[in-house]
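STRUCTURE:
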């Protein structure tokens, strides 16, 4: 219902929003306002406040897509009012999601025949996909344990300590113990040998990451599969593997097709991928694919009968938008294998240029590898004068959003900067970023030498007495790092 109000004061004659009272009054923040305001005033006020957000294109913290073709944006806007869950009303949208599931399953080498339907579902992102995959593993494990007359109240999952926070969420929300393989300096992914050692009869699955969030490195799923097959044969257990291919799922098939990480490996039972990362769709779409029907327990699936055909659904939420699914299908048919390959090659090449520029400064050690997600993760060789957190903050001045964070256990003492190279981060932006990093380094070094003499002597007034406390530059640096760490709480804050 449209709401109309009669404007009684003189404002009806004031045509400029900026000349009206709406821009003078503070906006309500806690309670809904009593009165309506004109639509142009509402638009202007909100739009203006949003100007203070960062520029998404310069947000190098995120893997999530920040640019799409205008033709696809048109499709997105045209379907913005379609609730995905209304399958009766929007059967074509449902059909497009099914086509996407099939295409991704084939890309990941699922054992499905030419005209057979793959098993999978569209989600809001990889987090929901991981919750669903984790639930399927938990339920399958419980069923097996019950059938064997064994207890099933202490499930656990084995991952590297480098997993994204969504795995912690899964563990906490669905009461599964998270057993993390610790990292070490110089080795920032899950070691498959240590992971397999941690597996016991209560392990519902081992989760490997194709494209660690922290460094982009691909974990060795093939070795994990081999070692776990041996352990399963020795113990009689049947521990499966899930691959979290949130970022790498749309990179490896195009750039390293010979790399075996997917359903070619027999223990890989499910894979998630974010459509909104290198699937090249705006935020709000992920996918989970199961190897076969048997890997998804039927009692978790709800069956909706739309237009006479069975539509299995397995999601955490009911309503959601359709636009992202439609956009994913657009990208698949618009780009095809050829287009995705070209874009991923470009991203890798831009990441290489950026990496070289960063190395040439002589100040950083690059931790990311040449094979993996196109990103550059790098640490300062010498943090005695300034930290990566200082660099991240200084780069904001140029508009760049580059996250700095410390590694998880047992490599917490390593602090890195990470630049994600997306489709829309081109060569000239890469070169400009390098020159801005050089500028920031120069400024920080000049500042450090200016203040080092002063900072070494901190005068502290205690009561009447003047007490002189000497601090070394290292101590001051440690304090700065400690201060920053307060903002970097928990796992991977600020990176996604
Ligand atoms: C390896 C990995 N898994 C899962 C996620 C969560 O993905 P989403 O943001 O699609 O929920 C991320 C996000 O960056 C990730 O890097």
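SEQUENCE:
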């Amino acid at each position: 219902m449209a709401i109309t109000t009669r404007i009684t004061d003189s404002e009806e004659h004031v045509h400029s929003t900026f000349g009206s009272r709406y821009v003078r009054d503070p906006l309500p923040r806690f309670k809904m306002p009593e009165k309506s305001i004109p639509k142009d005033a509402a638009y202007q006020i909100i739009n203006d406040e949003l100007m203070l957000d960062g520029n998404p294109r310069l947000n190098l913290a995120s893997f999530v897509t920040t640019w799409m073709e205008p033709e696809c944006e048109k499709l997105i806007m045209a379907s913005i009012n379609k609730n995905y869950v209304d399958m009766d009303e929007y059967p074509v949208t449902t059909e497009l999601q099914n086509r996407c599931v099939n295409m991704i399953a084939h890309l990941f080498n699922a054992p499905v025949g030419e005209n057979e339907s793959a098993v999978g579902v569209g989600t809001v992102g990889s987090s929901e996909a991981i919750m669903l995959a984790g639930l399927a593993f938990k339920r399958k494990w419980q069923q097996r344990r019950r059938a064997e007359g064994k207890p099933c109240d202490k499930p656990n999952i084995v991952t590297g300590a480098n997993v994204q926070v969504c795995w912690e969420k899964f563990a906490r929300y669905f009461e599964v113990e998270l057993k993390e393989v610790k990292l070490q300096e110089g080795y920032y992914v899950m070691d498959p040998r240590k992971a397999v050692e941690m597996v016991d009869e209560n392990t519902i699955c081992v989760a490997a990451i194709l494209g660690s969030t922290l460094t982009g490195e691909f974990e060795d799923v093939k070795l994990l599969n081999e070692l776990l097959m041996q352990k399963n044969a020795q113990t009689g257990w049947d521990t499966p593997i899930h691959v979290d291919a949130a970022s790498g799922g749309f990179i490896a098939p195009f750039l390293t097709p010979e790399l075996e990480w997917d359903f070619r490996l027999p223990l890989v039972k499910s894979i998630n991928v974010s459509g909104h990362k290198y699937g090249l769709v705006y935020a709000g779409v992920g996918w989970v694919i199961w190897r076969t029907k048997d890997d998804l327990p039927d009692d978790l699936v709800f069956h909706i009968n739309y237009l006479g055909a069975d539509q299995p659904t397995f999601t955490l939420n009911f309503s959601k938008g359709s636009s992202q699914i439609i956009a994913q299908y657009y990208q698949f048919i618009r780009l095809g294998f050829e287009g995705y390959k070209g874009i991923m090659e470009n991203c890798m090449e831009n990441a290489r240029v950026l990496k070289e520029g960063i190395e040439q400064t002589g100040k950083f050690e690059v931790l990311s590898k040449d094979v993996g997600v196109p990103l550059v993760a790098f640490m300062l060789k010498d943090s005695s004068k300034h930290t990566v957190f200082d660099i991240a903050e200084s780069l904001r001045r140029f508009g760049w959003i580059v996250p700095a964070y410390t590694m998880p256990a047992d490599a917490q003492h390593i602090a890195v900067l990470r630049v994600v190279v997306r489709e829309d981060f081109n060569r000239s932006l890469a070169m400009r970023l390098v020159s801005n990093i050089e500028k920031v380094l120069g400024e920080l070094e000049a500042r450090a030498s200016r203040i080092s003499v002063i900072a070494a002597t901190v005068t502290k007034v205690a009561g009447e007495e003047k007490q002189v406390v000497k601090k070394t530059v290292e101590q001051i640096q440690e304090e700065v790092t400690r201060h920053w760490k307060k903002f970097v709480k928990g796992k991977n804050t600020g990176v996604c």
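REMARK: Residues 63, 125-127, 164, 166, 209, 213, 244, 246-247, 274, 286, 496 surround pyridoxal-5'-phosphate (CB under 6 Å).
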